[in-house]
Amino acid sequence: MPGVGASRPAAPRIARTLGWRDVAYAALDFETTGLDYATDHVVSYGVVPLDGGRISVGASRRQLVRPATPPSPRSQTVHLLRPQDLADAPDLAAAAGPLREALAGRVILAWFAEVEVQFLRGIYGGSRRWWRRRVIDVRDLAIFADGSPAGARAQRGYALGSIAQRYGIPVADPHDALDDALVTAQLFIVLVRALPDLPDPTMGDLRRIGAAT
After folding, report:
1. DSSP string covering 150-176, please?
2. What's phi and psi for 62, nearest 5 deg?
3. 8 Å CB contact between 170 and 179
4. 21-212: what CATH class?
5. Hey, CA dihedral for 76, 89, 125, 97, is it positive or negative?
6. Which among 108, 190, 111 is positioned nearest to 146, based on CA atoms?
7. For the chain, which residues make up each domain, given as ranges?
8. Closest of 102, 120, 116 to residue 50, by C-alpha
9. Among 120, 171, 161, 107, which Cα is nearest to 139's?
10. Which of 16, 94, 98, 137 is deepest in the core (most CB within 10 A)?
11. Looking at residues 174-183, what average pLDDT do you find?
């Protein structure tokens, strides 16, 4: 996937034996006009950094993005961003630079990460494997911590809002990119402490959970 021309964010060099608190993370959420990068567009992103196991709210970033085509009325009902809200925002090529800086050298946290991976590949290029190696899907941690049989998992579902409610994490503004990124970051901190038989997981543990789930 060629990308829009911006170079990829610098990838972190993380040993599998490193404890989870010793890694720099960036929780990321995209709001888009749909789920397929080939036909849909980013309309906003939110990034929340975590350092030393703590969320750095003051260093968070929310950016509106002017899409190549206006968001459809249907997509506006999800993210509540109208064409006039995005008219003065930078386009994706311009917004890619600040996003690259926010992600540089950090492991990316996302909820249902395949969507973020697809759009990151579209923006910066690179293979799915390259991106998956630097992304932790926090939804996978929720599934692992749940421990339910596969059939029960399918019935229960793992939407960000419902899992946040289960763990007592407030959701102030659903489908706002920054709020969703913040909820993802909070859930990550809660879930890494709730993993069965892993009281203090390493990066290798988190990678194995993702691969197994």
Report:
1. HHHHHHH---HHHHHHHTT---SSTT-
2. -125, 130
3. no
4. alpha beta
5. negative
6. 190
7. 21-212
8. 102
9. 161
10. 137
11. 96
